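Long-time lurker. I teach an intro course on protein structure, and each term I like to show students one example going from raw sequence to a predicted 3D structure in token notation. This year I'd like something fresh instead of my usual example. Would anyone be willing to generate the tokens for the chain below so I can use it in lecture? Attribution to the forum is fine with me.
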Amino acid sequence: MIRRIALGAALAAATFAATPALAQQKVDFVLNWVPGGDHAPYYYAKKMGWYSQASIDLQIEPGKGSALATQRVGAGSTPIGLADMAGVLVAKGKGADTVAVFNVYANSPQGLYWLKSSGIQTVKDLAGKKIGNPAADGARVMWPALAKANGIDPKSVTWVNIDANGKLAALKAKSIDATTSFYNLHHVFERELGADMGFLAWRDAGLNPYGNSVIVNARWLADNKPLVDKFVKVTQRAFAACVKEPRPCVQALVDANGALKFDNELENWGLVEKLMSDKFSREVALGIHDDARMASDYELVREYIGLDKTFDVKTVYTNEFLDRSVKMSK
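-- Reply from a regular --
Happy to contribute to a lecture. Here you go:
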């Protein structure tokens, strides 16, 4: 189990003292999907007034997939979003003007689920099968890389559009052969499918790019650097606080989204902690994008998925706003 975060002295500094906020700037933030345990830190920081104290009136909007969040931020219709980083690289090649400022998933959260009774055992067994998930799901963007890394033609599967809440029902009904989901929902699949659950984490199948990252529109960033700096540091502080003591964070999430169940989202958050931890988040800073890993992810996307236009990967992320005293403990 991951040890709790070691907070630096700067975390308790006067920067985040409860001083009266001055002029509030409204900032829209679109999530990758509907609110869940992995989004608890944003709601906790909002409930605690930390964004407000930083003069940020944060408006959190449920998302409909990483691809859509990336499109919106890239086009400038929404200044900040949460999206799968590999998909962000693909979108950059198509002209999306985004910069990642905070990494959430240091490990890929993507997973494949199927029924063991179907006879599927590996990625190769998916050839000729139907995979169901939402049309804007980030897994579709990265599927060619997973398929090629495992020796099958990416076009050998049929994608079926299914709402996120319909995945399990479709799998049980055998109207699809497999589906995709983030690892922080693994406990839901285990509960519903039991011993018949087949599972493969993409990170165990030769594909472990950075997962969800907070991205901002590049032009908006250039015009609002002080605001982005405050947003990132508050968000980093919130993630640190939620790892140290998750229950109040999950409660803030549930309070803001009444349909959620506390125990389920608490378990969700526990799995998120595992995805957050790697060598760089433990030794350098929570939320960092490592240069070598980003270069490797760029090459993976270029080779297996393809880029409409090449670019310098360092233009797609920055670590300048992170507080380096906040780390995952070793």
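Some talking points for your students: Confidence is low (pLDDT under 50) at residues 1-21. The longest helix spans residues 225-244.
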